[in-house]
Design a protein that fits this description.
- By secondary structure, the chain is an alpha/beta fold.
- It folds into 2 domains: about 140 residues, FAD/NAD(P)-binding domain (3-Layer(bba) Sandwich), CATH 3.50.50.60; about 150 residues, FAD/NAD(P)-binding domain (3-Layer(bba) Sandwich).
- The strands form 6 sheets. Strands 1, 2, 5, 6, 7, 8 and 18 form a 7-stranded mixed β-sheet that branches.
- Strand 14 and strand 15 form a beta hairpin.
- Helix 1 packs parallel to helix 7.
- It is globular.
- The protein starts with a strand and ends in an 8-residue tail after the last helix.
- The structure holds flavin-adenine dinucleotide.
- The site of flavin-adenine dinucleotide (FAD) has 34 residues, from helix 1, strand 2, helix 2 and helix 7.
Length: about 350
């Protein structure tokens, strides 16, 4: 089958949905394509696994329930500057394309699923992950970045009696944060009896996890590998390999235009536009890009994207967290940390993207 659209949006994460919604609301002929049939607020997935009753399925919403343009569930296998070829053999021709294919953690499907492509399967995947966690007494978390720190805190809050070890390759948690945030996160996790081990690189070796630095071995009942985020840009290697940098990110200019192309754009986790990879920022970028595309169509002047200051809250369980504020400030004050704690940011993101919350759960 062959389709035709004015604006093709590849990827229905924070960036793609924000762009698609705004363009469609302004009357642009938009087609959003995603291999999944649901949007998911990733911020809530870790709590969803540790404590399903607090989050339920509220963080997910099927695209057909809220997308204002056309939605196609399919995987893009390759593309050039005129058409995208899908894995099922279909072709979508476009005038402009926005690449918002995001990123994944290949060894941590609970963060972003690798194969649960429909809503019911993803809800079941979360339940299965929870059951596996319930039956484990000892837990090893590899990686002390945002995901590893939050997962350790969520499990410690939900299961105070489990033995939780968080192993990190360097000597501070949250490598990209300010020293005060790193210290506070460590204090908060330690207060929840999480055993944080620094300068450790554990990898599976038969039925144990062996550290290549210290030589020690651990035999946890369950392990979570929270490192190794990679951009979903393999499908571009077929026809557009030159647009990727050494990390596999799509090279864009300050207007989010793909280097060398006037009708291709990229943003969010898959692009070089901002080294800070956050869902909230990806949504802000989507809003900017939709405006820029609309202005260009009217022949109006477009200003370059200005990286906005942001508040990043890393929760360390249901009752604590660390917020990094603009100008390098850090705080653990409840009224700021609770901006995320309330419902893990789900309602804020839904509001930003024009999604009606599900009040039935
Ligand atoms: C556990 C966890 C917690 C997080 N917490 C926070 C937080 O508290 N605050 C925050 O701001 N950020 C947080 N983040 C980061 C945030 O999730 C990412 O920055 C965000 O997902 C990036 O959005 P995106 O739209 O660029 O890409 P994604 O959300 O990765 O979306 C990309 C979409 O593209 C689709 N896709 C990919 N390839 C193809 C293809 N070939 N064909 C069709 N569809 C395709 C995918 O299915 C996906 O739906 C967290 C991340 C994780 C994993």
């Amino acid at each position: 089958m062959e389709y035709q659209t004015d604006a093709l949006i590849i990827g229905g994460g924070f960036a793609g949905v924000a762009t698609a919604q705004k363009l469609a609301q302004q009357g642009v002929d938009v087609t959003l394509i995603d291999k999944k049939d649901y949007f998911e607020v990733t911020f809530a997935t870790l709590r969803n696994v540790a404590n399903p009753t607090m989050v339920g399925d509220r963080a997910r919403k099927q695209y057909v329930e809220f997308i204002e343009g056309t939605f196609i569930q399919a995987c893009v296998a390759s593309m050039n500057d005129k058409e995208a070829k899908l894995e099922n053999g279909d072709v979508i021709r476009f005038k402009q394309a926005v690449i918002a294919s995001g990123s994944r953690y290949p060894s941590l499907p609970l963060a972003k699923s690798n194969d649960a492509f429909n809503y019911a399967d993803r809800n079941q995947e979360m339940i299965d992950e929870h059951q596996a966690l319930v039956s484990a007494q000892s837990v090893l978390i590899i990686g002390g970045g945002l995901v590893g720190v939050e997962l350790a805190g969520e499990i410690a809050s939900a299961f105070p009696d489990k033995k939780i070890t968080l192993a990190h390759a360097s000597d501070t948690l949250l490598d990209q944060s300010k020293p005060k945030a790193q210290r506070k996160a460590l204090e908060q996790l330690t207060a929840k009896a999480v055993d944080v081990k620094f300068n450790r690189r554990f990898a599976k070796d038969d039925d144990v996890y062996r550290c290549s630095i210290s030589g020690e071995t651990l035999q946890p009942d369950i392990a979570y590998v929270c490192v190794g985020m990679i951009p979903n840009t393999e499908f571009l290697r077929v026809d557009l390999p030159n647009i990727l940098d050494a990390k596999g990110l799509i090279k864009v200019d300050d207007y989010m235009k793909v280097e060398g192309y006037d009708n291709l754009y990229a943003l969010g986790d898959c692009a070089t536009i901002d080294s800070r990879k956050h869902g909230y920022l990806a949504g802000v970028q989507g809003g900017y890009l939709a405006d820029a595309i609309l202005k260009s169509a009217q022949g109006e002047k477009v200003k370059p994207y200005n990286k906005p200051p942001v508040v990043i809250v890393t929760s360390t369980g249901t009752d604590s967290g660390v917020a990094t504020l603009p100008f390098g400030l850090t705080t653990t004050l409840n009224f700021i940390v609770n901006l995320k704690q309330k419902d893990m940011g789900v309602s804020n993101i839904f509001k930003m993207l024009g999604i009606q919350p599900d009040t039935s759960q």
